[in-house]
């Protein structure tokens, strides 16, 4: 079970929770399917899916959780057509023009009638808490999706003192420095062949590059024109490749052959055991990556973080 993305939240003060306590609190908000007249619902589900029942899967002090969201899908064009038909029928029968407020009421009625037959779209968002590392890691492609999971977790457990990590210098400044060679690239990192550049002027133009030498003349010309690098593909420690953005979001995360070989060496036949092994390998690797990446970006600003010694 490999994450495809990683949105990191830093605990701002010491935080610890046992798997048992977390399980008990998440059970209060366990997922229940949408009712006939509901458009959406979300709740916690077993990370192992059909291979497990527990809402928390723990290994080496890391707690994996999964938030499921169900949304009813109603085709906008069909709703619009039905509303138009009813409005037209009422106007013809009553010889009057239907005002907007009444049209909105008709639309609400149409939606309520259609909901029981609507298709459902289900999405799962995975995350794990790493109290000993002081982070929450969410497998989300966008900051909003990650924030939604963090908010749901906060609601379930009552307190979640987290924020995105902050580095000493702006990531876009560091990315740009790596490409124009004014900042040394950290030895654990190697540049990929993709980047996104933004114009810092009022127009705010964007250039997306793929399959190029990122330190070549074509990219250098954009940098000399004042553009800044806001996304960058890199490889870390010859084992993880990903695209890093200026919000420190990690996307299109790919684990290298070394980890896959370790997983293949695991003597486990059933799916649950292999899932557990993959989770353990992934979390150990990300536990190396996260502090290493923050160091490579100029160091983490921990001025707003209360350490255990400070709390004591």
Describe this structure in words.
Helix content is 37%, strand content 26%. By secondary structure, the chain is an alpha+beta fold. The chain has three domains: 7-71 and 120-163; 76-116, no CATH class; 171-311, no CATH class. Strands 1, 2, 3, 4, 5, 6 and 7 form a seven-stranded antiparallel sheet that branches. It is globular. It starts with 6 loop residues before the first strand and ends with a helix. The mean pLDDT is 90.
**Approximately how much helix is present in the residues?**
25-40%
Shape descriptor: globular
Beta-strand content bin: 25-35%
Q: What distance separates the N and C termini?
A: 37 Å
Treating each run of at least 4 consecutive H or I residues as one helix, how many helices? 9
Low-confidence stretches: none
Give the count of structural domains: 3
Strand-pairing-aware structural class = alpha+beta
Brief synopsis:
With 312 residues, the protein is an alpha+beta fold.
SSE map:
Layout: E1 7-11, H1 19-27, E2 40-45, E3 57-59, E4 62-73, H2 76-94, H3 100-114, E5 119-130, E6 135-138, H4 143-157, E7 162-163, H5 171-180, E8 189-199, E9 206-210, H6 217-224, E10 227-236, E11 240-245, E12 250-255, H7 257-264, H8 271-296, H9 308-311
């Amino acid at each position: 079970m490999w994450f495809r993305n990683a949105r990191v939240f830093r605990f701002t003060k010491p935080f610890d929770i046992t798997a048992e306590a977390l399980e008990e609190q998440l059970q209060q908000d366990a997922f229940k399917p949408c009712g006939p007249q509901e458009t959406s619902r979300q709740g916690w589900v077993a990370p192992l899916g059909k291979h497990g029942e527990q809402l928390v899967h723990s290994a080496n002090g890391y707690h994996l959780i999964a938030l499921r969201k169900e949304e009813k899908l109603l085709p906008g064009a069909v709703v619009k057509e039905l509303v138009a038909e009813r409005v037209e029928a009422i106007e013809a029968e009553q010889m009057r023009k239907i005002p907007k407020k009444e049209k909105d009421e008709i639309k609400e009625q149409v939606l309520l009638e259609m909901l029981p037959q609507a298709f459902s779209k289900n999405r799962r968002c995975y995350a794990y808490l790493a109290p000993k590392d002081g982070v929450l890691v969410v497998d989300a492609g966008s900051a909003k999706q990650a924030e939604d999971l963090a908010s749901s977790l906060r609601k379930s457990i009552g307190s979640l003192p987290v924020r995105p990590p902050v580095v000493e210098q702006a990531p876009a400044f560091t990315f740009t420095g790596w490409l124009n060679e004014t900042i040394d690239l950290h030895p654990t990192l190697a540049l990929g062949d993709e980047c996104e550049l933004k114009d810092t002027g009022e127009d705010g133009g964007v250039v997306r590059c793929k399959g190029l030498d990122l330190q070549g003349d074509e990219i250098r010309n954009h940098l000399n024109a004042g553009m800044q690098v806001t996304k960058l593909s890199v490889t870390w420690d010859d084992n993880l490749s990903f695209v890093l953005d200026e919000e420190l979001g990690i996307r299109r995360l790919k684990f290298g052959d070394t980890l896959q070989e370790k997983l293949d060496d695991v003597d486990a036949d059933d799916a649950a055991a292999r899932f557990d092994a993959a989770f353990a390998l992934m979390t150990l690797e990300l536990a190396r990556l996260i502090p290493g990446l923050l160091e490579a970006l100029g160091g983490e600003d921990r001025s707003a973080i209360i350490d255990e010694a400070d709390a004591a």
